[in-house]
C-alpha cells in the first residue's frame, strides 16, 4: 500500500530571539501528541528543496502515529534575509549558513518546541542531519534538562577536521583561525573570508565557529581522534558524551565525510557513547552523506525506532 500524506499545514513560528522561521507540519490521520522536529544541515540546505527526504519522513512518521515539523532554521541557504518581531518592531536581518553560529540552534529548537506545545503536542523528538546532528549534541550539552525524549543523529560531521584537511595542515589552520579571530575582534565578523581560506560562502565568525577545535561545533572530532593530532584543549566528543537520552545514530555506508571508513567512525562513537544501553547504531548500505536514493529506507528506520519501547 502506497503511503500518503493526509494532513499538511504551513507553519511560521518565532525562535526565542524573534526570528520568523517557516516550515511545514505533517499530522497523522488520528490525532497524536507526539511530534518529531527536523534539523537540516548547513550550506544551501532547505527542507523545501530537499523534498524527497522531507516527504519520506512525513509519510513514515505519520504512518507510525508521529507528527512531523520540518522547518528552515536560521542556517538555511547560504545567506537569507529573515524578519524579526523583537521589541514589537519588524525588521530584516541577514542570516544563513554563511553567518550562523551553532549555539544559536538552542533559540530555534526552543522556539519550535514552544510553538508545538501551543498546538497541543507533549512528546518531542529531535532528528538532525549533518550539521543538524551536531546541533542536537550542542543543544543537549547546554540544555540537558530539556523537553525532548529521543534524539536521532544522521551523518554528524567533523567540520574542524575537514577544515584542517582542506587548508593542508595544522599550521595553516591555526594561522587562518587567528586571522578570523582578529577580524571578529575588529568588528568584521560578518565579512566573508577570502577564497584561500574557504572556497565557499563563510563569514569570519562562522569559519571560526566551525573550524575551531575548541569551538561548540567540533562535536565529532574524528580526524583528531584517529590521527592523535591533539588540537583541542576541550575533551574530545564533549557534547556527544553529554547525551543522556535514547539516541539513534545513522550513517550512510559511503558517507564522503567519514575519511573512507564509516565502520571505524561507528566504532569510535560506540566507544565514546556515555551510556551504551541508550544508544543504537545503524549503517545504511550504499547510502552517501545525504542518503539520496535511500530516503524511504532511512525514514522507515527512524520511524520504527522512535515508536520502539526503549526498555
Brief synopsis:
The chain is built from nine helices and ten strands. The chain has 311 residues and is of the alpha/beta class.
Topology of this structure?
Layout: E1 8-14, E2 20-26, E3 34-39, H1 51-63, E4 67-71, E5 80-84, E6 91-95, H2 105-118, E7 123-129, H3 131-142, E8 148-154, H4 159-167, H5 170-185, H6 204-211, H7 222-227, E9 247-252, H8 262-272, E10 279-284, H9 295-307
Helix pairs in contact: 1-9, 5-6
What does this structure look like?
It is a single chain. The chain has 311 residues and is of the alpha/beta class. It contains 9 helices and 10 strands. It has 2 domains: 8-158 and 231-307, 3-Layer(aba) Sandwich (Rossmann fold); 162-217, no CATH class. The chain has helices at 51-63, 105-118, 131-142, 159-167, 170-185, 204-211, 222-227, 262-272, 295-307; strands at 8-14, 20-26, 34-39, 67-71, 80-84, 91-95, 123-129, 148-154, 247-252, 279-284. Helix 3 (131-142) links the parallel strand 7 (123-129) and strand 8.
Counting helices, strands and paired strands, the structural category is alpha/beta
Shape: globular
CATH architecture of the largest domain: 3-Layer(aba) Sandwich
H/E series: EEEHEEEHEHEHHHHEHEH
CATH class of the largest domain: Alpha Beta
Q: CATH superfamily of the largest domain, please?
A: Alpha/Beta hydrolase fold, catalytic domain
CATH topology of the largest domain: Rossmann fold
Residue-averaged pLDDT: 94
Walk across the major sheet and give the strand order: 1-2-4-3-7-8-9-10
Please work out how many helical segments DSSP would assign: 9
What is the number of independent domains? 2
Main sheet: strands, sense, barrel: 8 strands, mixed
Amino acid at each position: 500500500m502506497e503511503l500518503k500524506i493526509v494532513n499538511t499545514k504551513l507553519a511560521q513560528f518565532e525562535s526565542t530571539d524573534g526570528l520568523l522561521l517557516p516550515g511545514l507540519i505533517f499530522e497523522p490521520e488520528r490525532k497524536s501528541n507526539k511530534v518529531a522536529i527536523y534539523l537540516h544541515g548547513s550550506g544551501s540546505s532547505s527542507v523545501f528543496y530537499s523534498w524527497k527526504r522531507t516527504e519520506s519522513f512525513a509519510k513514515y512518521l505519520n504512518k507510525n502515529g508521529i507528527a512531523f515539523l520540518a522547518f528552515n532554521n536560521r542556517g538555511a541557504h547560504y545567506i537569507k534575509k529573515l524578519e524579526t518581531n523583537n521589541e514589537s518592531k519588524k525588521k530584516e536581518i541577514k542570516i544563513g549558513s554563511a553567518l550562523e553560529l551553532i549555539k544559536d540552534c538552542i533559540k530555534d529548537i526552543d522556539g519550535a518546541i514552544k510553538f508545538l506545545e501551543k498546538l497541543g503536542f507533549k512528546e518531542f523528538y529531535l532528528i538532525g542531519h549533518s550539521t543538524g546532528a551536531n546541533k542536537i549534541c550542542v543543544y543537549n550539552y547546554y540544555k540537558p534538562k530539556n523537553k525532548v525524549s529521543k534524539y536521532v543523529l544522521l551523518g554528524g560531521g567533523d567540520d574542524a577536521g575537514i577544515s584542517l584537511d582542506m587548508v593542508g595542515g595544522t599550521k595553516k589552520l591555526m594561522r587562518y583561525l587567528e586571522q578570523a579571530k582578529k577580524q571578529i575582534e575588529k568588528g568584521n565578523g560578518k565579512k566573508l573570508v577570502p577564497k584561500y581560506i574557504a572556497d565557499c560562502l563563510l563569514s569570519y565568525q562562522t569559519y571560526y565557529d566551525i573550524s575551531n577545535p575548541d569551538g561548540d561545533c567540533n562535536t565529532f572530532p574524528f580526524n583528531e581522534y584517529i590521527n592523535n593530532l591533539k588540537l583541542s584543549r576541550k575533551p574530545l566528543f564533549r557534547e556527544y558524551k553529554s547525551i543522556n537520552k535514547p539516541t539513534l545514530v545513522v550513517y550512510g555506508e559511503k558517507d564522503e565525510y567519514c575519511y573512507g571508513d564509516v565502520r571505524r567512525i561507528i566504532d569510535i562513537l560506540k566507544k565514546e557513547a556515555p551510556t551504551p544501553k541508550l544508544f543504537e547504531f545503524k549503517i545504511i548500505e550504499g547510502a552517501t552523506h545525504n542518503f539520496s536514493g535511500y530516503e524511504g529506507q532511512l525514514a522507515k528506520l527512524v520511524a520504527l525506532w522512535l515508536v520502539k519501547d526503549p526498555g
